[in-house]
Amino acid sequence: MSTPSFIHGNHAVADGAIAAGCRFYAGYPITPSSEIAEILSERLPQVGGVFVQMEDEIASMAAIIGASLGGLKAATATSGPGFSLMQENLGFAVVSEIPCVVINVQRVGPSTGMPTKAAQGDVMQARWGTHGDHPIIALSPSSVQECFNLAVRAFNLSEQFRTPVILLMDGLVSALREKIEVPDPEELTVVSRTKPTVPPEEYKPYAFTRGGVAPLPAFGDGYRFHVTGLLHDEHGYPTEDPAVVSAWWEHMHTKIGNHLDKILDWDEVELDDAEAALVAYGGTARSAAHAVTLAREEGLRLGMLKVRTIWPFPEEAVRRLAAQVERIVVPEMNYGQIRLEVERLSAGRAAVTGVNRADGLPITPEQILAAVRNRE
Amino acid sequence: MTITLPYLATWQMLMDVLARVVTLRGDRELPIILSSLPELPERELGGPPVSFIHGPPGRNIAVAIGLRAARPHTPLLLIMNADGVTLGTNHLIHAARRNIGMTLLLLRSEVTEATERQPLDRLRWGAPGYQQSIEPMATPLEWATALQSALVGRGSLLDPDGLAALINEALETPGFSMIGVTAGANLKLGVLSRTQWPEYFTAYREWVASFVKLAREGGAGKAPSPKPVRAVPRYETLIAGVGGQGIKLAGTILSEAAGLCEGLWATHRGEYGSATRGGPSRVDVVFGSDPITYPGADRPDALIVLSQGAANRYAPLIKPNAHVVADPEPVSQMPPGALPVPIIQLAREYTGRPIAAGVVSLGCVAALSGIISLDCLRQSAARHVPRKALEKNLAALEAGYAATREALKGSSVEGDVR
Predict the structure, then answer these.
(1) CB of B72 less than 8 A from some CB of A
(2) pLDDT digits (tens, 9 = 90+) for A3-26
(3) From the list A43, A115, A177, which residue is nearest B270 (CB)?
(4) What is the mean pLDDT of residues A275-291?
(5) What does the DSSP 8-state code read for residue B178?
(6) Is the predicted pLDDT of residue B218 greater than 50, yes or no?
């Protein structure tokens, strides 16, 4: 059984967070993400959780790290200006392998930009915003239902792989209201971090098990260990030993890279006979889907690869696509961030172009269709 | 007295103090230590086994806030030097003013680096040159006192038992404590100030426990029993006018009537910042029996215009054979083929308020589309219109419906009227 409700994307994210077991939220409200904080400030106390409005986004990110170490599933939500402030501590969560979810509802930037207007300009920031050659997971919902589903999945992936996960929304989806089916709790897959079972003296909080992650006890639950932003050995003690540091890097990259089958997530729409394809994500994927419908009515063989897990990027799917279709159009509310990935993976096999705008208005299906037709 | 402390010796003294704290605590829970200083060399020195967070400079205070929320009873001991009152000042102020449970040891510069004797409630961190010459020194213990910290005190590494006892007292004190740590012995040590008030998360949990648990599911999103599924092609509705005409609310009511009551898929595109009174306002509602892809009504099947600007801008976009309803009061130059319905006049007549124009417009949509029933609009309106105004609004809704049907009769374009 599931319950239909009619809500906006931010509301669905808040509901998804609660359903996934989020019990701590620290944040500083910012348009267009504020409803997430507003709703969780009411919902978290009702389920025994804690909501704290912090002094800034640096503190918000730090606080969710502390809460997660203390054993709570934790999240914060923000938009571009706050996401920039979070990068420092986001890196700390990456290096110390602390599960947490960062929701970024993208608006037009840089800086304060256009606070109420939707954009998709933070795609590369989500990938590389914090310094160092780190792995990351980022998910991009294109419907209110996906806002709920991917919020749950963001927590699940962060718990499973001990990593921050970025829920990369945009102002189109966050403010869109539509019907969703909220699954009953017993139908929902909820993943929680594993706890160590070995005696405390044998516990390695950062064990370099090739491709896996160490269990994580709640800090203070008898397993005493070090958590540090310095590169460290399997016990969490800082090290500059090149052999250990190399092993650490291998651990960091394999814990995500060896599990792409569990992390990557995309839809193939009308691709079977497609001669041209769109690669789209987030709110723009809605326009792209409609463009496919309109194109098919005109007899154009257009399909779409809709990307939900945006980082890591579905490289093999795009390589296959580039081998199949003659050209690929990438509509984005930025000046071509994912297009760079698609071009790289196409390696010249398909012609890649973009439909790009960052003026606060959504890309229309007609605009996309025009770009497709122009190449006929 | 001037003393010289080699770096390692200072840490040895601090580790010795922490070992004494561990002894003092006996069976009580040991603190988690948070520090951004070069990691306590506990492995090398064989100090007390503790859980240790070596976080980014200054940020540990904020990390501790989250940790405190998750671990209401685990003592938290922060060891900081300049980072606590530079990068960390904002966090420090808010942790202190909220009385969040943690004990902050603020190491004076001679503990970590310098050897110079200074007034104990002041902090220098060894900055060379003008900073020491022209800037007044930071006075964090005075800040902490001004912020009514639960406990503010001083201790010296030269008095390890006294410092350990002070730390232990702070750990046992609910709320925010700050202890200045020096390597001197010539200034007043011990508790400097105390304020008794509830620890933040203790107070939070008590406050939350008194909540009446409102089941949010019972609110606006709750579905009435949907009708059986029927085939309805994608139908784009655009209502456009100016802020203050109730257009946003109309979108909410219409989209829920379609999505929840009529059992269709529906979208209601939200926009921020465009609903100021008098400024242009529009709402896009798209529905149909297949999931809605693009939520924009770029090519409306039903267009309701409540301003001349909206009429000029959107009327040319309608689908062939689609209807435009225009209110002749604000729209003096009617678009070709537009049905005149006195929407604002009906709103005033039935509710006394022009803001009900949006609800009247929904009557127009019901008449034009033949898809969304008045009954579903009534149910949906009942969830969003304040109870006092509901009856009048429902009358206005029906008036809009009747007036549109009447207008359709005189129109060359056939409406699908039920």
Answers:
(1) no
(2) 788 999 999 999 999 999 999 999
(3) A177
(4) 98
(5) E
(6) no
B190-194 and B265-269 beta bridge pairing: unpaired
A289 and B294 within 8 Å at the Cβ level: the answer is yes
Burial class (CB in 10 A: 0-12, 13-18, 19+), B334: middle
The answer to whether A263 touches A316, Cβ cutoff 8 Å, is no
Cis peptide before A115 (omega within 30 of 0): no
Q: In chain B, positions 196-215, which contact chain A (CB-CB < 8 Å)?
A: 201, 204, 208, 211, 213-214
Give the span between the Cα atoms of B30 and B73, in whole angstroms: 10
Of B55, B221, B294, which has the smallest distance from its Cβ to A287's Cβ?
A: B294
Nearest to B75 by CA among B42, B37, B103: B103
- How far lies A26's CA from each of A9, A40, A58, B292, in Å? 19, 10, 10, 34
Task: Identify the band that residue B213 occupies on the pLDDT scale cut at 50, 70 and 90.
Answer: low
- Residue A35: phi and psi, rounded to 5, are -65, -25
**Phi, psi angles (nearest 5°) of residue A227:** -120, 125
Distance (Å, whole) CA A312 – CA A319: 14
Distance CA A64, CA A100 (A): 7
Unique residue bearing structure tokens 């706890």: A195
In chain B, whose CA is at the least distance from the CA of A33?
B272
The answer to whether B65 contacts A26, with C-beta atoms less than 8 Å apart, is yes
Q: Under an 8 A CB cutoff, do B59 and A89 touch?
A: yes
pLDDT tens-digit series, residues B344-383: 999 999 999 999 999 999 999 999 999 999 999 999 999 9
**For residues B281-294, average pLDDT:** 95
ipTM of the complex: 0.95
Number of other residues whose CB lies within 10 A of the CB of residue A185 = 8
Look at residues A72, A108, A106, A244 and name the one whose alpha carbon lies nearest to residue A175.
A106
Among A residues 56-75, those touching chain B with beta carbons less than 8 Å apart: 56, 58-60, 62-72, 74
Q: How many CA atoms lie within 13 A of B308 on its CB side?
A: 5
Integer Cα distance of B357 and B375 in angstroms: 19
Find all residues with CB under 8 Å of A133, minimum gap 6, and list them: A249
Cβ distance A286 to B293 less than 8 Å, yes or no, reads yes
Supply the pTM of this predicted model: 0.94
Output DSSP code: residue B298: S
User: What residues 153-192 of chain A have any CB closer than 8 A to a CB of chain B?
Assistant: 171-172, 175-179
The residue to which tokens 């009385």 are assigned: B99
Flag whether residue B230 sits within 8 Å of chain A, measured between CB atoms: no
| pLDDT given at position B168 | 97
Q: Are B326 and B340 within 8 A, CB to CB?
A: yes
Instruction: Report the gap between the CA of B344 and the closest CA in chain A (Å).
Output: 26
In angstroms, the CA A292 to CA A298 distance is 10
CA A300 to chain B, closest CA, distance in angstroms equals 18
